[in-house]
Amino acid sequence: MSLREVLTPFTAWKHVLDAPVTIPDPIGREAAERYRGFHQNDMETCIGCGTCEAICQNGAIDMVPVEGQVTEKGDSGLRPMIDYGRCCWCALCVDVCMTGSLTMSNEYTWVDTDPDAFRFIPGLEEPWKDKEAGYRREGGRELSGTKRSHMGELAPALRGDNFSEICAGFTREEAILEADRCVECGLCVATCPAHMSIPDYIAAVRDQDYDRGLQLLYETNPFSEVCGRICTHKCETSCAALHEGDPIAIRWLKRHIIDNVPMERRLELVGGAKPANGHRVAIVGAGPGGLTAAYDLAREGCAVTVFEALAAPGGMMRYGIPEYRLPYDALDRDVAVIQAMGVEIRCNMRVGRDIALDDLKRDHDAVILAIGLQMGRGTRIPGSEGPGVEKAVDLLRRITAGEDVPVPERVVVIGGGNVAFDIARSMARLQKATHGTVGVTLTALEDRAHFLADAEELIEGAEEGVEIIDKRGPQEVMRDASGAVTGLRSWAVTSIFDDQGRFAPAYDQADERVHEGAMVIEAIGQMADVSLLGAELTEALDWNRGRIAIDAGFRTSEPWLFAVGDAVKGPDVINAVADGHRVAQSVMERVSLQEGIS
Amino acid sequence: MRDLHANLKTRHALGPFEPRRANLGFVTVPAERLRGLLTELRDVHGFTHLVLLTAVDWMEDGLFQLTYLMNDRAGDRTLGVRVMLNRDEAVGEDMHDLWPTAATYQRELKEMFGIDFPGSPRVDEEFILEGWTDLPPYRRDFDSLAYSQQTYAERPGRVTHDPRAHMKSKLYPEG
Ligand SMILES: Cc1cc2nc3c(=O)[nH]c(=O)nc-3n(C[C@H](O)[C@H](O)[C@H](O)COP(=O)(O)OP(=O)(O)OC[C@H]3O[C@@H](n4cnc5c(N)ncnc54)[C@H](O)[C@@H]3O)c2cc1C
């Protein structure tokens, strides 16, 4: 501190005997209409994202828990507390606010003898809480953009007869623009089942540090290339940006990182496994649940063998999700990294047929069931047994396997979920390639506004020529004298659930239609094939509503047996990944315990 | 206003006219033409009043922008005259002989942006920042947050919470 700095304050003493110039009771004059006075915060609109704190150049804002504000999806439950000892009323916090909850009244006088009173949480008790006059930002949020960056897509005319990937992924320029919109609040992280470090990897895109981005992805998700394309991306429903614009395209930014790191570099960055620890783990099923567990356990030094019934690994990522959404080579790269950790995947090995579960139990310290839901559910309507009626998952599997599937000129799909659209759009492509025209009718119980499928499936499906008919309940598969399928008879749906909210569709029988088609495809759900367990184990295990019962650590009631993925929980890849990590942890606990005993 | 622009354009090497409202517009002029333009506006076209003189820091472009907002009271029109200065050796031309109030603005710009106006009365004296030793605070490379953290004491008892970490502790403490 210089001498001058020490002395400067004392120059004020020369005024000590002057008459005061301050007015003891300010005249009570109303400030201008848009004056930047004391803060207001609409507690219900505020999501506690802390962007106000991040932008404050005076360090005047703390995010604090407030009684009555609940921490939940998309809301941290925290609220800003402002220190008026530091605030300079610049209003940057108001301008940047993601929801518009933070504003300023035009109130500007506040007298208190307690200096701590001037640290306060706007929105609680202050007298100017509901005052209309004051500063609020005009129009929408401008400091962080509200529109999603453009991404290239195959036009309908170019994709209708082939399985080429539709989405091109962001270019670097597009990705940086999109990453720039993220305020890094991290509200999304709680919603992601795997709690990926979303704000950090988005920052890596902005900084153009793809190596760091990739390492962040691999901390929580060995299926980032897959998830960067087909994740159900619930994270985006908790994004602070969606309150006044498009949510950040988190999924596409993840994909962008992976797309920008060559395979050799990826292997280098991920690094190798720990030295062998002598434990052996068997996993049944090479879907995302089983392979994520395999990855973690192999990295810990376990010898991991995955037994897979089908010819190639990936589970529903390969045999369910169509190639136009997830190309096989993208999946192959994720799997290759897992194999590079030393995981052995033995394909064409159906446990219960090619090898017994008991053998796995005998030769390993633990066994994880990750068998998914491989069997399609049937409608059981008259006529649905017999040739010409297919289950969506069976057909999708055969299409992936390259088998010849029948491609009639007209096909009817029953179901309004994503699986229904996957098969409808796959069949449309095959029809277009075979006959030059599309003849797919998709019927669903729900009305359009309540379809279970994602909104873009309806849009893209329609673009590709799929006829989507809502509110139809299937009644009978029609067959001609020779038994060949001719169509589906349906009734109009009047309601789907009864007064108690139970599934009980009601119909208007007078509104009957026949949807013409030589094939009817049922896409109304899947179930697990648990025949591999055998009678004795089936009897011994605890069950929960038809599923193998598990605890929070994915342990079954048999100490050597664990279960994960769609077969016990679901419903998507990212949940399978998250739970794959958890089951691996439980297995590690068990094998370490065994080590202690022996 | 457009007529005025057309009239002055060639003689003063003006940039394109940027209208904002019927009676408000902006124009950019090379630094060496500034005095001539301002004098003509004042003496010939009725822009007798200097409303304000202010600056913008275009840090990425290495430029400071000065804006002389001039008002023609009788004609009820306002013209903003802009001039771009090199940010590294930021020197503007002293205009206090045209308007005495310019000296005050120039003193402020010296203090807040570090733009010098040689010859301007008291330009090197402190304006409102007493004992300022840091970068001029309106320069965009001045780190306001770091400055306030270093300069002002933290009121005891302050605690903040990171939203992401807080949500973890509440919603998924096990990880
Ligand atoms: C058509 C379709 C589209 C989907 N689209 C998406 C999407 O876009 N995004 C998303 O996140 N999720 C999607 N899902 C869901 C997602 O694929 C699953 O949630 C996920 O694959 C479940 O992983 P899992 O490891 O539990 O099982 P699965 O992926 O089903 O893998 C189980 C594996 O176990 C094998 N197996 C079964 N029994 C045996 C046995 N006895 N012996 C040996 N191996 C056996 C199977 O062959 C299979 O490979 C979709 C599902 C389907 C059906």
For this entry, give a set of tags.
A: 598 residues, alpha/beta, five-stranded parallel β-sheet, 20 helices, globular, B: alpha+beta, Beta Polymerase, domain 2, five-stranded mixed β-sheet, 29% helix, binds flavin-adenine dinucleotide
Topology:
The complex is a heterodimer of chains A (598) and B (175).
Chain A: H1 3-7, E1 39-41, H2 51-55, E2 61-65, E3 78-83, H3 92-96, E4 102-105, E5 119-120, E6 134-135, E7 152-153, H4 156-159, E8 167-169, H5 172-180, H6 187-191, H7 198-206, H8 210-220, H9 224-230, H10 250-259, H11 263-270, E9 280-284, H12 288-299, E10 303-307, H13 316-319, H14 328-340, E11 344-346, H15 357-363, E12 366-369, E13 375-376, E14 389-391, H16 392-401, E15 411-414, H17 418-435, E16 440-443, H18 455-463, E17 467-469, E18 472-479, E19 485-497, E20 503-516, E21 519-522, E22 526-527, H19 534-540, E23 543-544, E24 547-548, E25 561-563, H20 573-597
Parallel strand pairs in A: 9-10, 9-12, 10-11, 12-25, 14-21, 15-16, 15-21, 16-17
Antiparallel strand pairs in A: 1-4, 2-3, 3-5, 4-6, 7-8, 13-22, 18-19, 19-20, 23-24
Chain B: H1 2-12, E1 18-21, E2 24-28, H2 34-43, E3 49-58, E4 63-72, E5 77-86, H3 102-113, H4 144-151, H5 163-171
Parallel strand pairs in B: 2-5
Antiparallel strand pairs in B: 1-2, 3-4, 4-5
The structure holds flavin-adenine dinucleotide (FAD).
Largest sheet of chain A, described in full?
5 strands, parallel
Give the helix/strand class of chain A.
Answer: alpha/beta
What coarse outline of chain B follows from CA principal-axis ratios?
elongated
Report the strand count of chain A: 25
- The CATH topology assignment of chain B is Beta Polymerase, domain 2
Oligomer: heterodimer
> How do the strands of the widest beta sheet of chain A line up side by side?
11-10-9-12-25
The structural domain count of chain B equals: 1
The CATH level-2 architecture of chain B is identified as: 2-Layer Sandwich
Most extensive interface between two protein chains, with residue counts: A-B, 34 and 24 residues
DSSP helical segment count of chain A: 20
Question: Stretches of chain B where pLDDT falls below 50 for ≥5 residues?
Answer: none
Task: Give the overall average pLDDT of chain B.
Answer: 95
Unreliably modeled segments of chain A: none
